[in-house]
Amino acid sequence: MKAGWERTNNQIIPPVSAIEEMLYPFIKKGSITHHEVLAGGLNNTNIKIVTGNGQCVLRIFSNHIKGIKTEKEVLNLLAGMIPVPEVLFSDFSCGKFPYPFILLSWKNGRPLSEVLQGGDEDRPDKAAALVGGLLASIHSITFPQSGLFTEQLVIGEQFRLNPDTYMDMIRGSLVEGFGKKHLGPALSMRICTYAEDHAHLMVDLGEQNSLIHSDFNPLNILVDEDGSDISISAILDWEYAFSGTPLIDIGNMLRYEGVSTSGLEDPFIESYLNHGGSLPDQWLLKSKLVDLLALCDLANRKECGEVRIRDIRRLISLTLEKWGND
């Protein structure tokens, strides 16, 4: 599950004196007793901050001011409805520090990806069901149109998936973009042919104006465990959120099902539907088609690490082989 993927951007690790300057006056100078860079994340830098008053997380965004603004607005929107970190402090001015940053409350738990790999047979099922119910609640939040957010979560650039836009995005990654360079001409041609054969399924994706996380996967979901009891303590990393089809999050969540996870799909989808989620006919195939867009986009980078590309090639090849005749 993105195991060993190379970072997209270098980590940004300021000294404690700079952190205190960044966070003043929310955190008084001299009050930080410990700080450490957290594992995980391929784009931004997450630093655990410990003071006499508790723990929090400093998120430093490399080059995506729009993303950090979206994350802050979504976190404020979801506060009290969905388990997410609380926004404690933020600065997008790049005045005190050359990168925008946000300070979030600390959430206990370990990534769902670790829970799924554990030896407890019941715990992954319970966690998957909890996540399915939460995702249904997230998708129940809708907007007037589908598209990308601007300030205050207003829809700016409108975008809706259909056969034409689907093929435009595939070609944008593989023909005009860098995808062909990394995936190779043979696989790129197979993807384009497969996409053309299945693009007609984009006609009926259901409603496309739900709040979409867009990176909804077990790495971004924290599970808090208390003996045999478990709960979802946080859904993290909302910088890519937008208004669109729920199948994007469904496909992302099930990307590694049958690869490095198993048994996730049934409890996850059953709970999603039981909590009000809605799925179109052939939802699994359509979610795989939509996730194929995401995988091609992940390969559409000027520079991509070998581990990342190897994993993307494997996932795409499995999709083409398993779903090629549907």
In short:
The protein folds into two domains: about 15-105, Phosphorylase Kinase, domain 1 (2-Layer Sandwich); about 110-320, Aminoglycoside 3'-phosphotransferase, Chain: A, domain 2 (Alpha-Beta Complex), CATH 3.90.1200.10. Helix content is about 40%, strand content about 20%. The protein contains eleven helices and twelve strands.
Would you kindly provide a written description of the structure presented here, covering whatever features stand out?
The chain has 326 residues and is α+β, with helices and mostly antiparallel strands. The strands form 4 sheets. Strands 1-2-3-5-4 form a 5-stranded antiparallel β-sheet, sandwiched between helices. A 3-stranded antiparallel β-sheet has the order 6-10-11. A two-stranded antiparallel ribbon has the order 7-8. The chain folds into 2 domains: 16-105, Phosphorylase Kinase, domain 1, CATH 3.30.200.20; 110-322, Alpha-Beta Complex (Aminoglycoside 3'-phosphotransferase, Chain: A, domain 2). Helix 4 (122-139) packs parallel to helix 9, helix 5 runs parallel beside helix 10 (283-299) and helix 10 (283-299) runs antiparallel to helix 11 (306-322). The chain is built from 11 helices and 12 strands.
